[in-house]
Amino acid sequence: MSTTPDDTAEPRVLGVAVPTPLRRLFDYRPCQPAPEGGWQPGLRVKVALGKREVVGIVVECRATSELPLDRLKPVTACLDAQPLPADWLWLCRFTARYYQHALGDTLHQALPVLLRQGRPLEARTRERWQLTEAGRNTPAERLGRARRQAELLELLRQHPRGVVGSVISAQGFTRSQLRALADKGLADSVEEPLTAAPAPRQGGLLAEPALTLNREQSAALAELHQGLDRFHPCLLQGVTGSGKTEVYLQLIEAVVAHDRQALVLVPEIGLTPQTLARFKRRFRVPVVALHSQLTDAERLDAWEAARAGRAPIVIGTRSAIFTPLARPGAIIVDEEHDGSFKQQDGLRYHARDLAIARAHRDAIPVVLGSATPSLESLVQARAGNYRHLRLTRRASHHAPARLELVDLRGRPRQGGLIPPVIDAIRQTLAAGSQVLVFINRRGFAPTLACHACGWLAECEHCDARLTLHRQPPQLTCHHCERHYRLPDACPDCGSADLRPLGTGTERSEETLGALFPDVAVHRIDRDSTRRKDAFEQTLAEIRRGEPALLVGTQMIAKGHHLPHVTLVVVVNADAGLYASDFRALEHSAQLLVQVAGRAGRAERPGRVLVQTLHPDDPHLRLLAESGYDALAETLLEDRRLAGLPPYRYLALLRLESPREADANQLAGEAAEALRGWLGERDPGVDCLGPVPAPMERRQNRYHVQLMLSAARRAPLHEACAWLTHWLEAHPGARRVRWSLDVDPQTLA
Ligand code: ADP
Ligand code: ZN
Ligand code: ZN
């Protein structure tokens, strides 16, 4: 992309990426006058696109176009004096190419909303007022009858580092009182950025001392210290509570001490106020968070602070991978196996994989941390491409609890729990501890059934059962979020004998409340925490440490430190064991280990009871008896034999249409065309399908898919590029929505 100054000074053509799904640039002529620094890639421009005017980004500065130059429109205006950061532009181009996505849409999605709309890229500022030398030497009495001015002088005197304008006005002082002091030469103000204003660094980098590392942590950190100035990918595998975060913090300390910036990615569920507080407590320098609750203006501020290099530490979820850094120093991906790092619609990128690409380009270390690494990362570590660092001991010295399998067969159940498990819960509560009951289904019951004829409540728009909810009472489709009224009688046979089938969090909460009337029951799932702050309040309540029952989905199973939980009950381990998706076993093993990790994090040891109808299942037994590494070993071997990732690479073409025939026809033609193209070349790419998607009908649209598979990435990407071009040119593709998913996380 580096264009020589000669090209950029007076290019005749600008290749502009505009926000459309089309995989091509649009050519425009430069407008007059040229921007200060000349035309360069990364400048935002306003351009006419059809009847609209849109914000685009200059990607190429060229001498020629495929169109006659006099047919090109000039850009309407250039919005920037300086181009958007080169590292950001590089990452977007890499992403667009790798995921076969339109560059215009990629750039658009990777930009804060206000920049997309054409807002200038500059920091919002505020005034900070302080006393001048003369002001410091002036006693308040000298101001005589100007009583408020004297009080203002005293306020500023108490704050040698200055007081922000808004704080001054909040104390009831006026602008003219400030002006009066300024006119007398007693006070003055500086403009500082609203976000990550440079803090005076008194007393070093740390606000709180680092912990003394144990042997394993020290070894890991030493290894990380060795690779600070080069591409150094590391897999930090450490059991829950083994002090991975402490290692991150000390790595960041080294990075910031070298005047570089650290980017920390955490799963969606992991960016809690506690996590943030932990980072902020440690460092005296600003920690800038990018999370979903920011306003557009705050998001732009954070982005700008990172780009300008004022934010030494940036922490955020998936999309934070697109944060530009002025002086990149390290990238950390916590819980690297977590599914939320993969975007599941539109631009289907994987933030962990982009982190690796970005670190490689910037020649900086990248740490992937997890207790249960993805099979992809394990294979890289095994091949020696990543350093494999391990933490096997918990800081609290209690080994992580073993999984105890509990046979559900032929036992009476209450709220999904069998008598010995209920007894264990009773004993734990009696001993003054808390119990976590994990059940990965929200609602009251997974479905409603007619006992007379076997009818099951199903969504009218999806091939899916409806979930029964009691709070409020209704049937809900968890795939399209439609709600249905509860029927009084079976719609098929008219019987009134309708019963809930199976157990969800609401039902478990109800049963446990009845079994243990004297103990608080907290339900934690997407429904119970919908209200803002509800989750935080419940967690605060739980942390007080009274005996309590926590009933929750994976929302509670991931990341939270629950020091008073000593017993974890998994209501049913089977769903994930027998799901059809090829990653289902990996993901359910990761989830089970995470859930188990909630037990016995503090001074008391923990116990984990896993209810199952298949206590002899070899995978489950291996996990329970030998742990995640042993299971991962087996799963890898299964994947190798089945020709699945991480041993082969996949891309999935999904097609959907309200008309089944349209989707099928286009899928069939695409498969035939692709096979023809592959047949002439024989690049080692397999094309499978088309086949109906596992859930064929969703929201009244029919889903069909085509899978591409290859042992090497390059030919797979070539085939994908050919296929997307073919689809873009095909008239039938207008009636069918299609998308390509490179490295799909699921085949659903
Ligand atoms: P992880 O990120 O692996 O789950 P954490 O870094 O959160 O682990 O550490 C778990 C607990 O152990 C925390 O309360 C942390 O303060 C404590 N801890 C971590 N490392 C040490 C250490 N070297 N010495 C004492 N306590 C530690
Ligand atoms: Zn019926
Ligand atoms: Zn539905």
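^ adenosine-5'-diphosphate complex. Residues 1-8 have pLDDT under 50 and may be disordered. Residues 211-214, 217, 238, 240-246, 395 surround adenosine-5'-diphosphate (ligand 1) (CB under 6 Å).
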